[in-house]
Structures are given as C-alpha cells and as structure tokens.
User: What shape does this take?
Amino acid sequence: MTETIYSVMEFHGTGDPYFGGTAADWSLYKTEDGGHAFISTAEAQRRKLVMAYFPTVSEAEKAGAAASTRKGRISALPIKPRFDVPTAQISWIVGNKHVGDPDSELAEDLVDRAKRAGASDADLIAQVVAYALACHRANQALVAHFRL
Assistant: This one.
C-alpha cells in the first residue's frame, strides 16, 4: 500500500498579477526557527527553506490554518513522494515498529537512517519523515479498526 503525503497551499487574492490582479498563492514552508509560514517560492529558495509535508489531510489543514496570516483559502494537496524516497523500505521499517511509538521517536529514527544512508537533501529527508508518519497513521488506523 502506498501512503500519501500532503503539502499545503494558501490561495489569496484574485486575478493574474501580470494583468493587474492580486493573486498570490503560496506554499507552507518550515521556517528557520522550526515553525511554519506561507512564503512565496522565490523567497523560500532565497532562504533555502524546505516545504512542509504532512502525513494526513487534517494535520496539513490544521497547520495551514494556524500559519495563515492573510486568511486565504487553505488546501491540503496530495504529493507523490520523490522517486528517491524508499517507500517500500520505509513501509517495512514502520510496520515493524509499535503503533504506540511517539511520532518524534519515529521521525528521529528515520532521519538518522536517511543520514547514515547518505541523504543530505533536506527536502528528501522531510519527505521520508512525512511518508513514515503516513505509514504510522495507517497502521494506527488498522489497529483502531480491528480493536487490537
């Protein structure tokens, strides 16, 4: 089973700015201080920020609503993980973890594994962690469904 990860967009304004409109649709990024903020792509690239990824729609929308300062429309968008995210291996690793393990412990383990495997791209590591948490949420849902 392939899990889905999500990013968040804030749609604000109307009309193409090239033709006098005010539309400015920004993605949610993880800021230098560890928080989240909606930032234009150009500004995020200048600051070398990584897009924020989430394991569920509800977590993405909640983070987006909390970070919104312009009060635009918030949408969680499904993201297909990069081709170099080892989804099968992550699913297997998470499947061997306990569903009660805290998210922070799981995230630390996957970050450590990714770095030991040679991953240095922050966006890749962010997607690995989000995918692992999505697998973790799916396992938790199965346990809840079957009342194990």
